[in-house]
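call fold(seq) -> tokens
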Amino acid sequence: MLKEFKEFAMRGNVLDMAIGIIIGAAFGSIINSLVNDVIMPPIGLLLGKVDFSNLFLTLHEGKIAGPYSSLADAQLAGAVTINYGLFINTIISFLIIEFAVFLLIRSINQLQKKEEATPAEPTTRECPFCALEIPIKASRCPYCTSKLDRPAD
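ret:
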């Protein structure tokens, strides 16, 4: 059973999937930093110095009574909160990741179209006497034995 598991784990698809998950997690942390540290501060500044990560709604006060100046203060007090600012950050992160994946897939599709667009050199031709496919460099048809003109190289 251990041998079968080792064979399964070392298959190409499983390794590719594991690498994809690891890269995806790293990419997600980069995007989270981009959203939280680069994109949201200017947006918050434009909207009147709002820090989206500190937007929350208190449902029930904690041990220390509110109002709370930040989400961290509310959580320290044990308050029950709805953290809609963090949700906004998560939605923006998702949209950025989705757009990046779209650009990646779009570029891969364009590369595949270019590969498909370049036709391969023909390796066969049709015998003018019997109309069967023969090698392009043939000087005599293997089917009807007719003598053929060699194509120009």
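The chain has four helices and four strands.
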